Amino acid sequence: MKFDDFTDRLFEGARRAGFEECEVYESKGESFRVMVFEGKVDDYKVNTSLGLSFRGMKNGRMGYAYTEVLDEDAVSMLLRSAADNAAVIESEDPQFIFAGAGKGDYKPVEAYYPALAELTPARKIELAIGMEAAALRADPRITTVGYCMLQYGDGSVRIRNSRGLDLSERSNGLFAYLEPVAEADGKREEGHAYRITHDPDGLEPEAMAREAAENALTKLGAAPVRSGSYDILLGSEAAADMLSAFSGIFSADAAQKGLSLLKGRVGETIAAPCVTLMDDPHLRDGFASAGFDAEGVPTRTKAVIDGGVLGTLLHNLKTAAKDGVASTGNAAKGSFKSPVGVSPFNFYLKPGDTPPDTLMRRMGRGLVITEVVGLHSGADEVSGDFSLMGKGFVVEEGRRGRPVDQITIAGNFFTMLKAVEAVGSDLRFGLPGTGCVGSPSLWIRELSVAGK
Amino acid sequence: MLSEKTAARVLAAALETGGDFAEIFYEDTQTSSLQMLSARVEEAVAGRDHGAGIRVFREYGSVYVYTNDTSLEGLLTAARQAAAAIGSDRAADAVIMLAPAAIASIHPVRIPPSDVSAMRKAEILRAAYHAAKGYDPSVAQVTATYMDRHQQVTIANSEGLFVTDERTRVRLGVLAVAGDGRENQSGFNGPGGQMGFEFFDSHDPAEYGRDAARTAVTMLRADLCPAGPMTVAIESGFGGVLFHEACGHALEATSVAKGHSVFAGKLGQTIASDVVTAIDDATIPGAWGSGNIDDEGTPCRRNVLIEKGVLKSYLIDRLNGRRMGMASTGSARRQSYAFAPTSRMSNTFIDAGDSSDEDIIASIASGLYCVKMGGGSVNPLTGSFNFAVSEGYLVKNGKIDRPVRGATLIGKGEEILRRIDRVGRCVKTGQGMCGSLSGSVPADVGQPLIRISEIVVGGRQEGAQS
Question: Which chain B positions have a beta carbon within 8 Å of A43's beta carbon?
């Protein structure tokens, strides 16, 4: 059944079943992924996917159900499951089905790039083979490539509800990842580089291969440092990964549930004056750009931390109503199956004017940490505590020294925000997940390091 | 469900351009989940996942196409897409003969979760919630989640396999947060099984709730963990995540086949101290990581990975098996039809040894005793791993001293396996979700209490020096 037909029947059924309001959220997409090993296609994956989530309000309670098949059975299954689920809800929180804003309130956002859609599978395979070859060519010590992957995704979202809202948006993107292995003296180290782009010529296979190879080669001979307290220059990629792991603390939903220490702290200084944290759903060439959120509310740009002061938490309609403020347009779903939660879009620490090399000179002595590992287990959003495996370099007399690994850096994210001495000029975004998180290099005073 | 006739036509279409093996994985799954917060059910979601994945091999190359459109037409379109991608110009005419086989379930379900009302499921959450909240006044928040999943699959391949299987799983999660206004600490338990709702007859939700709260409260009052190399004892149960991360992933054919694992080419060699015997066993009735058949249709089995320190077996799937010249070990798994399967762990544990728990603790002059572990991760190439200690205690002169928080263990798999020098007698397991190339799959980890002679502990006690 087609979407319109299916939702017409669903809404009609919902009225008869006694739902006060209801809504469907449809997610549709195509993706392509190729992996290359030793000059040949090693893995190739394409798919088309469709998922539809239904939510309906009954006696003020919201029940959810989803399906991946749009047939007659699915209509009755969705209505029955959503009614059962609404009946078991005990939360007294207000629930919303949004009627929509004025047409002019939705900012047109460029997220779909037709030129990108025209890359043929053959061209994408050729690009991937070229990436692997370039990495192997980069240096005789590069002996193999662990992963060489090219991925293209095209997805669209449509929200339609019983109050007349009907919005849709489409986005696409190209992602490449390269992980060469360097070998010397019986030791192996891997390096990586990635590109994510809207431009068919934006992959820069040669430059990416050089960057990945360099990354692997510079790790050869890495060793721990002595345990102690060090000044740290957190590289942009590592800083973005950390911010991403702790992004949940800025959710009003987490705060209201007592799961974020930022509860009730809007207006207070929570970070050093050089820290400004933006959420910009309209960022040009951003990978999490959108004109409306998962409830159909228009998105908007805001400073979450402004010069160290907590400006706002991120809200959807429910959390905003509970706090007596307006939604910030940050309703989000982890996948179409999930209930509406809260999440940022293009979420980044505003860069400064100083290049990271200058920061290193000013720092004089300490460590550059280029990679942190273990965020899914070693970073606790509830307490802010982290203890992560780190890789990077020793900094002596303001210069980059020998490579470092097998160390952990540990601290507390809330404390760290206040200990940012300076931010670099090198803003870089990580891979998009729920939102897309970016950061420049950060100079952090005194983190605890465990090594030998 | 998928008929033999449809499967045969789809497989033939997938081989049209000269592929040498084709497979179809057809899935229909019902899920339900509930979440409780502040003593109230906050969220309830139910749904149906439905789709099929078609895989074609030619030598070492593989193509995977999946779709939600499981009509004959939709499946043929997907099969032809796969054929075109694997394709050579030569056309082949494959005739597929399927031989349906029955699978005997070793994980019988007594109470299908679909027969249980949402209200009854909410009672499980209520019991866990109140036990955790009532444990101590400092317990500020408790989140309890319940989930069940009933997956029906049909797997057919061009070698004639045609099998169907059902997998039912239930799981409870309790997260307790203790706070004093300035700081928060959390504790978690997540018991689950390949069982029906009868799981809760033998697993008391209140007990898991109380225990999660106990960890959170203990850690709230704990000092920061000192940093540096130490002797460490790791408790049974979820402590097995050490072996899972430090060694298990590097034994998966996914990284072994291409020589990307530190353990590649080491079968028959000593890779661990002689007190270490490690097993991956997907046949344990009712266990979280168990199965009847794997996601390629191969019967699940018990694989001895390491015996008294000697590497005995890898975990192998079909595709990587080709590259390695070895047969599947029944270890191919995937999150759903949206993922091509690859070699994964099931229920993986260090087997019982002969040290007593008392002797192990008494043998530590100064070190760390890890009662609960969080998750972790590993780089199979270098063997370098890290994981979080969610409940730890300092040990002084053979006695457990005070609780400490914020510790991480890091090291390299190869080194740590040789430093496991004492293994206790009682194996326990813990449940987790393991993420890798083929998605997130349920996996049990396990071990008795073990001692590691030296490992780097990351912490942040001020001025700590080794």
Answer: 61-64, 340
